[in-house]
Design brief:
The chain is of the alpha+beta class. It contains 24 helices and 10 strands. The radius of gyration is 32 Å and the shape is globular.
């Protein structure tokens, strides 16, 4: 029995032979006009390549890794036909086309053992120790501004665990802006990991651009607000930067500044590997540096972080700064307002003010989403492309399908009928008729590109009902829709499909639900067709190749006064617990509450954190004779397999 892959290879070989015969016909017809011949050959191959991709999609080969051997086979077959033609034909036309698809093979996933991670952590620990010795030597302030910036960034990397290039750049530019405006925030109190208070810590509020998640929208860009508590070393370098003068920062400047410091300390500790990785990154383009996230040279740097009470370093702060925990902070104005209005309460105040504590409201998830099919029941539309045939439903075991010619004839009749009705109906129905006519034109365009009718029906079933419903609800004429109207239309369609996917994921967790991503591709193709046919405006919804739902989080903070009341009530309840088990539960609740307050995390986010690894590098390289307390580092990772935010978080 022939394997599935062998059958696909044979089909591709046969199709390549057919298109090469078409190329020979074009060569004989336009041999005296080489420009036309080259353009025709390129057009024939492009159409074949698009059809090949659709063919592989139908075979469920929709990833580059699976497509690669078949695409390469088609290109080899073409080159073989080309070689035979040129060798066996006198005065053969020189075919310039040499198809070769470039595939970027991702590197194999590197799974590090605990020993390898500890080895990396030990290397960073020695670098960190040398940096602290260098910073305490008193010679830092005499260096150049570039080295001061480099020391500042290294203090954030090795003391705060921030090795994300975009975050470092945003922090640097926000710091410059605050220095110029003289508005660096001094907060009144900060809660440390051991629940004690530190007065007047230096905090910087900044924002970074994000593709789909944040808490501020400006000029159609989404921004995330963050805040960072500067460690003592960073505060020292800030004073030096003020004296030496500020320099505008960009990703390339950040890396060059770090290299300038590594060149100084490389005599005492081996940082050649880090320098080599950073110089390799500098060869990238400016746009690639802007899009870059974690710096590979500082991977696993969190294994070397020294948890010290004076540094006020929270165990989750490094994860937040590296974008591993998906959250946002308050905006700059809200954060200042919340901190400066803090009032310290005593135990006696708790009983009198307990009545002022607001009740907490929980969100109730809707078990069912209204589908577009239900919404369209009362709307008159004629395109019955999405209903199961009655004969097919009654005779489910029989394979009876209508021929493609009959379906095309029916679509033509519907098109003529809609064109006659269009002028005699009201505005709402006129929009609905126009939307159906555009879908029909798209159908015929897809058919001209040799798409199968079954594929066309699948494309339509993914978007057509939602598209018709939203067009029917649009009040003005569809021809008057501008860019904002189309962007809002497509966003509503995709969000509605994603909502239904989310319900299905909850009901069937083992089944992959990605209809929104599939509909995204079909909507993109449909809008591209409408741009050519109906001059519709270009939209920003399809700027990227994948669908990511925009989540705007309106971050709010419990006021410090209420925070103190609830925290003191928890402490009183802990002291009143009768068993150790009850105390453990209350301590866990207190920890969750403190994390939520300090880092802006919602409770659902904290529930999604997992104790993935417990690593203690200090057990290996610290001298046990000092009898120092060993603090175990817990690396918290986000649960990426479920959405942690609700839409009104």
């Amino acid at each position: 029995m022939m394997k599935k892959s062998d059958a696909i290879y044979d089909e591709i070989t046969q199709q390549v032979g057919f298109i090469f015969d078409e190329i020979l016909i074009v060569i004989n017809q336009y041999k005296q006009e080489p420009r036309i011949v080259d353009a025709k050959i390129k057009e024939i191959w492009t159409d074949f390549y698009d059809g090949l991709i659709c063919f592989l999609d139908q075979k469920k080969l929709n990833r580059n890794v699976l497509r690669k051997p078949y695409i390469q086979h088609s290109e080899k077959c073409f080159l073989k036909h080309r070689e035979n033609y040129e060798s066996n034909t006198e005065n053969a036309y020189l075919i310039k086309l040499r198809p070769k698809t470039q595939f970027i093979d991702p590197p194999q996933r590197q799974i590090l053992t605990t020993e390898e991670r500890i080895k990396l952590g030990r290397l960073h620990f020695h670098i960190y120790a040398e940096l602290k010795t260098y910073w305490r030597s008193g010679t830092v302030n005499t260096k150049t501004p570039q080295q001061l910036w480099g020391n500042f960034y290294l203090s954030l990397i090795y003391c705060s665990g921030c090795n994300d290039l975009s975050q470092l750049t945003a922090i640097g530019n926000s710091l410059i802006d605050d220095m110029i405006q003289s508005r660096t925030s001094l907060c009144s109190k900060l809660y440390r990991a051991d629940y004690k208070k530190i007065t007047n810590p230096l905090v910087l509020h900044y924002r970074t651009k994000h593709r789909y998640y944040g808490n501020q929208i400006e000029n159609k860009n989404i921004y995330q607000w963050r805040h960072v508590w500067f460690n003592p070393y960073a505060q020292m370098f800030i004073e030096g930067i003020k004296q030496q003068g500020v320099l505008a920062q960009n990703p390339r400047c950040v890396i060059e500044a770090i290299i300038a410091v590594f060149d100084v300390i490389s005599v005492q500790v081996d940082v050649s590997e880090q320098i080599q990785d950073l110089k390799k990154i500098l060869r990238c383009s400016d746009q690639a540096l802007i899009d870059m996230g974690t710096l590979k040279a500082f991977q696993h740097v969190n294994l070397s972080l020294e948890i010290h009470p004076d540094l006020s370093l929270d165990m989750c702060l490094s994860e937040v700064l590296q974008n591993r925990i998906k959250t946002v902070s308050l905006t700059q104005q809200d954060q200042k307002f919340a901190w400066f209005r803090e009032q310290v309460l005593t135990k006696d105040d708790v009983s009198t003010s307990s009545s002022q504590i607001p009740s907490l409201q929980t969100e109730v998830a809707r078990s069912e989403m209204i589908t577009a099919h239900q919404q369209l029941k009362e709307i008159p539309f004629e395109l019955m492309l999405f209903e199961r045939d009655e004969e097919k439903s009654k005779q489910n075991n029989k394979r009876q399908r209508k021929s493609e010619s009959i379906k095309l004839m029916r679509w033509r009749r519907i098109q003529k009928s809609l064109q006659k009705k269009k002028s005699a109906v009201n505005s709402n129905e006129q929009n609905l008729i126009e939307a159906q006519l555009r879908l029909l034109e798209w159908i015929f365009d897809l058919k001209e590109k040799n798409n199968k009718v079954s594929s066309i029906e699948r494309y339509l079933s993914s978007i057509a009902k939602d598209y018709l419903f939203h067009i029917y609800m649009y009040e003005d004429a569809i021809e008057k829709m501008n860019t904002e109207d189309y962007e809002e239309l497509y966003e509503s369609i995709l969000n509605g499909i994603d909502d239904r996917d989310e319900v299905q994921r909850a009901l069937k967790p083992n089944k992959h639900q990605a209809r929104a991503q599939y509909a995204f591709g079909r909507l993109k193709a449909f809008h591209t067709f409408c741009m050519k046919k109906y001059n519709t405006p270009q939209v920003s919804n399809f700027k990227y190749n994948t669908f990511q739902r925009i989540q705007l989080c309106h971050a709010k903070l419990v006021s410090p006064q209420i925070f103190n009341q609830l925290k003191q009530q928890l402490m009183l309840k802990i002291s009143a617990c009768s068993t150790l088990q009850e105390q453990e539960y209350m301590h866990q609740l207190q920890l969750m509450y403190l994390l939520a307050y300090r880092l802006g995390l919602r409770l659902n986010e904290i529930r999604g954190l997992t104790f993935a690894e417990i690593i203690c590098p200090e057990l290996i390289w610290k001298n046990p004779q000092h009898n120092q307390d060993i603090q175990i580092r817990i690396i918290l990772k986000n649960n990426v397999y479920r959405r942690l935010k609700s839409q009104n978080a």
